[in-house]
Structure formats: structure tokens, C-alpha cells
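Researcher: Next entry in the queue.
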Amino acid sequence: MAKTILSDSAIRAARRNGAKARSTEPRAIAAQYDHARDQIMITLRGGAAIGIPVSAIDEVAGAGRKQLTRVALTPIGDALHWDDLDVDVSLPGLLQDALGASLGASILGKFGGSAKSLAKAASAKVNGAKGGRPAKKPATVPSKRRRATNAL
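Model: Structure for this entry, 152 residues:
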């Protein structure tokens, strides 16, 4: 197998992409199996917690209780991992599946929209120098003109 050698610029780019992902994507800080509810309980970085029914996770739906209790997080908290089952489940994908596509996308999109970066700050500064966002124009309603009639 050939050895892959990464350039310094590729390593810097990967680190920038990782930093961006950490600030815009949901990350878990804890995960455990709750056998009474038959759910995987996930605590997110911001403190929110969500319980996902095991039956909603196809990759582990047939697993036993003992296997499910061995849930672990990937080192950066972007996925759940079961070593015994050789299964990794992406946290953003799991949340989107659990919440439904449109609600999941809306919630996950807020992570990206709330991200702060030097590029975003520079863009806001340029837009501000131009006068900011254009004002919304009021919706125009076509006027109803009365037709003049000749009265006899």
C-alpha cells in the first residue's frame, strides 16, 4: 500500500475545515444507553439532551442490551460508535433522521447560520459600508378602479 504524504498546506486546510466543522455542526459530549426507555441518550455540547429510540437507528436495531451499553463517542463527538458491532452513526445524520428532514435541516442550519468567522465579519463590514441590507419594499396591491358608466 502506498504511503500518502500530505503537504503542509493540505494539513493547514484540514485543520481549518475541522475548526469550521466544530463551530457549525452539532457535537455530543456524552452518550449512553437507557434500557428502561430503550433509547440512546445524547447530550450535546450546548447542554441539550435528546433520546433516540434504538428502533430508529437501523444500524443497531437488532443489537442486544449489553452491546448497546457500550456506545461511545468519536473523539470529536460527531458520531456514535459501537466497537462490538463495528458501527459508526453520524450525529448530524442521526439528528436529521430523528427530527424529520425539514425540521432537522432547519435546526442544523441554525448551527451554520450562527457561526462566526473572520470572513463573515469582513463581509458584514463591506455590506455595512454600502448601507447595509436594502430596505424591504412594501408589497403593492393593485388598486381597484371603478369604471365610469354613463348614466342615462
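Model: The domain at 25-114 is CATH 3.30.2020.40 (NE0471 N-terminal domain-like).
Researcher: Noted, moving on.
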